[in-house]
Amino acid sequence: MRDLKDVVLENWGLKVISLLLAVTLWFAVHGDPATEKTISVPVETHNLRRNFVITSEPPNSIQVTYRGGGPSVWFGESVPVCVIDLSEADEGERIIPLGTENLRLPRGLVLEVLAVHPARVHLTLEKTASKEVPILAVVTGEPAAGFEVYEIAHSPPRTTITGPWTRVEKVSEVMTEALSIQGKRESVHLLANLNIKDSLIHSSPPSQVEVKVEIGARRRRITIHEVPVLPDDTSLIVTPSRVSIQVLVPETFAGVLTAADFNATVSARKVDLTLPVVKVRPDISFAHPMQPGIKVEDVHPSLVTLHRMEKS
Length: 312
What we know:
The chain has three domains: 31-118, RNA Polymerase Alpha Subunit, Chain A, domain 2 (Beta Complex); 128-217, YbbR-like domain (RNA Polymerase Alpha Subunit, Chain A, domain 2); 219-308, RNA Polymerase Alpha Subunit, Chain A, domain 2. The longest helix has 19 residues, at 12-30. The N and C termini lie far apart (149 Å). It is mostly beta strands. The protein contains three helices and 24 strands. The strands form six sheets. Strands 2, 5, 8, 11, 12 and 15 form a six-stranded mixed beta sheet that branches.
């Protein structure tokens, strides 16, 4: 039978190394319970009430000083988290105390927390609001020489924004990102993102706007005189009975426009003819289809007077 001494001394070098590794591993896992350590712990906000938003910048992390197992204990596991419960927090500036009750530790981990820094955080909460605002398409640059922008149209024309009410009430319109038409010779159809710079304000879908920029040959201005103004009621008298209109036509347009190419009408359906003076703006339209780019720019006089014929 082998001597106990022989058993102990057999491969004694490997046994010593194994013992040292075991001791080292034990200290790596458990550490010195008397040693104080400080780690950075991420902060999470929970249970924010519906229709509320945090308008201040909450801290990303806090410092926790503890005594006990080190980070190797939860290596590969969930790390401790500082949880701020906002279920009872109302609107305004809130001072939230932080302590051990805010720490959520991985399962099975026991730490002696000595200090939490900072001991409190300041958060500002605000109710949210929504409103509809117009969209403004932003177009930059100039078309090629000899061309101009006829019209800029976009769809949808409006969007609904939501965010902290004090910020939403200050927004009168939402612009798109800038779209360049530099050097263009024809109309373009583009998709543009809404450019809302406040990260706490968001818009309802769609997040993109269809923008159509109509481009054509440069235009010149001409004046058409003596265009008859016709009422929708033959018992009405219009004064003056004829107007002049200013029209934009492409420089490439070789035709001739006359008063017969336009209709000028007025309607009494939405006015009160019992008033001593009733003035309305004539509606100008084309009498037949026109070449693209021809546009009525103005009418003179801008208002005409309506009154009924006196019965004989």
